[in-house]
Amino acid sequence: MPLQPQQKAYVFAIVTVLLWSTVATAFKIALREFDFVQLLCFSSLVASVALFFIILVSRRFKELKNTTPRQYLNSALLGFLNPFAYYLVLFKAYDILPTQEAQPLNYVWPIMLVLISIPMLKQRINGVSMLAIVLSFVGVLVISTHGDIAGFKFTNAGGAALALGSSVIWAFFWIFNIKDKRSELIKLFLSFFTGFLFSCAAMFIFSKPEFSFSLSGVAVIYVGLFEMGITFLLWSKALKYSSTTAKVSNFIFASPFLSLLGIYFIVGERILPSTIAGLILIVTGIVLQQYSTKFRKEPT
Asked: Does residue 297 surpass a pLDDT of 50?
């Protein structure tokens, strides 16, 4: 018996969340042998190749061929933001922070999106949104200080700033990307390919082009496939088949908690109570923000 559209949406959403839940562990394994610039360059190359293959198989090369110079320029801007700037900052954060700190701090991007939308999109926020922002940032403080908020002593202020900075970059990328009405597949490929070119130049300047098919090398390939490339398409399928975005978007909230399992069992980090408490606060804030429109009163 064939699956109904909503059932297909749930399958795609669950597979996507399970894959995204493993990438924080893959980041840390890859960074054992590769520096953050090498990781970015090689993983964005893998993502570009995978997405180009999907374009060919789906017979959508004509769409790519018909891309205008202006659209290429826009893709270069998007590619600079993501994957280049976003992952450059994020991978550096993972390089210097424990995985259990970097992963949830990067997760606050929906809150950053709200803050950026106030001046950029002239959006107004209500009391529920303000509460959501406060809760999420209290969660950030709990994680970054290992629960010692009163002492206000960050375990690694620079790493925390990088993790939060990556969420700001992602929020800017999201705003610019949503204004581009091209198909997601074409946009993703061109963004990752131009991002690869930026990261390739950075690798030759600041690092060295060395790759080995070790466990870390496999982790790099895994990141390119399941963090950067294929999972975005799986998620777009989930949204396409779902009758409403809300029916599948809630699955995302399981991802950071599932990630803790890999961080504990594979990376070997002892999960601190402050990490769990801070993550609960962050996710609670994001959930409140997601549903704040229900409490918003339209201006008369």
From this structure: no
